[in-house]
Amino acid sequence: MISAVLDANVLYPAPIRDLLLSLADDDFFKPLWSATIQEEWKRNLLIKRHDIKPEKLERTTLLMNQAFPDAMVEDYQKWIDAISLKDPDDRHVVAIAIQANANYIITINLKDFMGFVVPTGRFEVIHPDDFIDRLIAENPKAVYQSFEKMVLRLKNPPQSRAEVLTTLSGCGLVITAKKLKEMEA
After folding, report:
1. What is the C-alpha separation between 50 and 70, in angstroms, rounded?
2. Are 159 and 151 in contact (CB under 8 A)?
3. Second CATH level (architecture) for the domain 3-184
4. What is the pLDDT of residues 25-80, one digit of tens each?
5. b or e along 125-136 (b: 16 or more beta carbons within 10 Å of the residue's beta carbon)?
6. Packing angle between helix 140-153 and helix 174-184, nearest 10 degrees?
């Protein structure tokens, strides 16, 4: 099974996180993260959304870790000093990918990873829209079924498929939303 490090910026927007984790739950890929990534997305969300209580985000990460007990990557720090990136604060993401022998790093900030130099490891840095598009190309019906299950789980508030697709598109998953919409017919 392929594995992918989920950068904090794809865990931060709940719609992207929900879709990626729904696909992971249906065994399209194994998600990977670290405590550092978990803390980063929660910290950034709380800075922008004062209406969200930290306890709610702690519960979210607890549920994520319970649902994916093999997702937490540790002992990756040994790689950090050998990594050169445009933004040094992102070196831990590459280190996690190296430590876990990941196939992908899924991130919205592709430019931060351009031209990086790593001591070892082979993986691709990819935007979540392109990653999900690849999954759709490989198994469109199963990806759509995973999307459908995710929509049915949304209860607070409940949302229609069209509403969820609009939200996904607004979060930068334009190709994904378009292809999922095309599959409705």
Report:
1. 31
2. yes
3. 3-Layer(aba) Sandwich (3.40)
4. 999 999 999 999 999 999 888 888 888 888 888 999 999 999 999 999 999 999 88
5. bbbbbebbbebb
6. 100
pTM score, whole prediction: 0.92
Asked if the model's pLDDT at residue 120 lies above 60, the reply is no
CA distance 72 to 5: 10
Q: Is the pLDDT of residue 119 over 70?
A: no
Structural tokens at position 29: 């890929």
Which token pair is 171?
């979060």
| Phi and psi angles of residue 173, each rounded to the nearest 5 degrees, phi first | -95, 60
Looking only at the bridges linking them, the beta strands covering 3-6 and 30-32 are parallel
**DSSP output for 142-171:** HHHHHHHHHHHH-BTTB--HHHHHHHHHHT
